[in-house]
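Q: Can I see a sequence and its folded structure?
A: Here is a first one.
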Amino acid sequence: MAEEVLSQNEIDALLSAISTGEMDADDLKKEEKQKKVRVYDFKRALRFSKDQIRSLSRIHENFARLLTTYFSAQLRTYINISVASVDQIPYEEFIRSIPKKTILNIYSVEPLDGRVLLEINPNIAYAMMDRILGGKGVSVNKVENLTEIETKIMSQLFEKAIDNLQEAWSSVVDIEPELEEFEVNPQFLQMVSPNETVVVISLNTEIGEASGMINICIPHVVLEPIIPKLSVHYWMQTQTSEREPEEYEALAKGVQKAEVDVSAMLGESSMTIDQFLQLGQGDVIQLDQNIQDPLKMKVDQETKFYVQPGKMKKKVAVQVMEEYRRGDAGDE
C-alpha cells in the first residue's frame, strides 16, 4: 500500500502536539496497526492506468489538431478544437451526461472489435451546417426536426472527419473507421452494457461565436487488444525501433543521391596586387606544390582526400590514394 507523504508543516504540527501532550505517541501506534479500508465502487471500475490515459490524451490531442485543420478547410472559418478532458466512466453515466437530443455518429474501427461513438453537441453541429449552406455559422437547435437533406449533410461531414482518427491512431494501430449509424436519440443506442467502462475524450470546440463539446466514447472492448501498446515505454521505444530500419534506409538513399562539388587543388601561390596586375600571356606562376607530393581533393570546400593526377579514357582524372586527416604534416 502506498504511504502518505506529509508536508513539513504537518510534521511540525505533529511534533508540537506530541511535545505539548495534546497527542499521545501510543495512540498513534494503535492507529497504525488498525487496517485502513478504502471505498471501491465496482460500478466505476478503473480499468485503465494513468499512464494509458495519458497516452490516449496525447493521441487525441493530435486528433484535435487534425480536426481543426479539416473543419477549418471545410467550413472556411476559424475553428479551435482542443482536448478538455479524458475520463473513464460507466457507459450508462456517459449516456446520462449528454443531451436527450443530440448528434450521434457510430463508427466501426476494423480490425478492432466493438464500435466508437462520436457525439457532437447540437449547438456545434448546427453552426457547422449553417456554414456549409452559406450562412455565418449561426446555431439553431432543432435536432428533433432534422430533414433528410440536413441529415445527409451532417452524416457526410462527420463521415469524412473520422478519417483523421485513422491518422491519429496510426502510431499505435492501423484502423479503418467507417460510419455505420447516424442517430439523434442516445436512448436508442446500446453499444455495450450499462456498467461497461468506456473512455470519454471531450473536445472543446469553438466555431465563431458558437461553442460546445465533441465527445468521443470508446468502450473497453475496443481498446482491450491494444492496451499494452498504450504504455509510454512501448509507444516511445517499440514503435520507434520498428520504424528505424526503414527510415534509416530511406535517409541513406536520399543522401547517396545528393550532389556535391568536388575539386582537386594543383597548388597555391601568393603575390602582390601589383604583380597580379602585371601578369601577361605566357607568364609562369610558381605554385607551392611539389610535383612529387599528392594533391588535395576538396568536397564542398573541405579537404577530404589525397589524390594523384592522371588520365582515364582520354580525360583528366584523379585517383584517390588515402583519406585526408587533420593534423597531417604539411597541413595549412
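Q: Show me another, different protein.
A: A second, unrelated one:
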Amino acid sequence: MKNFTAFGNAGLGTSHIASLGSAISLNEAHALFRKAFELQVNLIDTADTYGSGDAERLIARATQDQELKNYFFIVTKAGFRHLALPAFMSPLNQIGKKVLQKIVPQKNFSPQYLECSLHRSLKRLKTDNVGAFVLHEPLAGDYVPDESWRALERIREKGMAQLTGISSGDEQVVSAGIHSGQVQLVETPVSYCVPGSAVILNLCQQNNIPVIANQVFLPLNVISPAILIKIRQLLPAYGLEDTSLREIMIGYAQRKPAVKCVLFGTRKAAHLAHNAAAVNHSYPEPLFDEINHLIHSNQ
C-alpha cells in the first residue's frame, strides 16, 4: 500500500486526456506527467467517467516508472453513470455512456455503486489505494443517502483511499458532507463568477477542510469581450502587462485562505509549466478588487 505525502499547491486535471476527439498518446501523457514531476505538481485529478475509464488507464500506463508511480497524489471521483467495459472494448464506453445517461438517472451515489466504482478505478489505475476518493458533483436535487457518507468511512478503513470528500459547487451538499464527518477534502469552483463560492470557502475554512479549486478560468468563458479588454487594460498599472488573464485567475483562486491547491486541466506540458508558475506568483490585492468591480458592476 502506498503511503501518501501531502499534496502541493498545484494540481493537474485530466478530464480531456482520453476524451473522444481530444485524447493524447501514451508518449504525450508520459511527457505531461514527467513535466508535472519536474515542476513538483504532485496532485492528479481524475474520475471514473473521464474517457469512461480511459483517463485512469492512461495515467497508470504513463506513470509506470517507479519514480513517477510513487510520486503522485491521485484524486478520483465517482457518481456519474457510465459503462465500464474491459480495456479492449473501451472505445464503446464513451458512446454507450451517452446512451445510458439518457435512459436512466445520470447520477448514482448509493454506497454499493460508490464502492464498486472505486474498486474498478483502482484496477484501472493499477494500485490498491488512492490519495483521495470524492463524490462527483452531487447537487441539492440529487439523492445522497446517509449511508453514502458512511460508505466513505468504510473506504478509508479498508485503506482504499487516504482521504474522502466531495467535488461540488452546491453549498447545501458541501455543508451536508462536512457535517457528516466523512469529508476531509472539498473540490469546488473558485472564480469571480461562481455563485456560492464564498460561502463554501468560508465553510471549509471554519472546519479546517482543505479546498482544491477547480474551474478557475470560468470568467474567461462568461465575461463579455468588452469587460475582458478593460481587465487587460488594468494590468500595466501593476507592472503586469506581460501577464495573461489565465495567470490572474489562477492568482485569484490561490489567494483564498481555504484553497490548498489550484487545479488546471491541460493536455500539454508547456501549458502545465505556464500555469504552475502562476500559482507561485504573488499579485497585488488592489488588482483583484478592481477586477471584481469591473465584472460585477456590469452584470
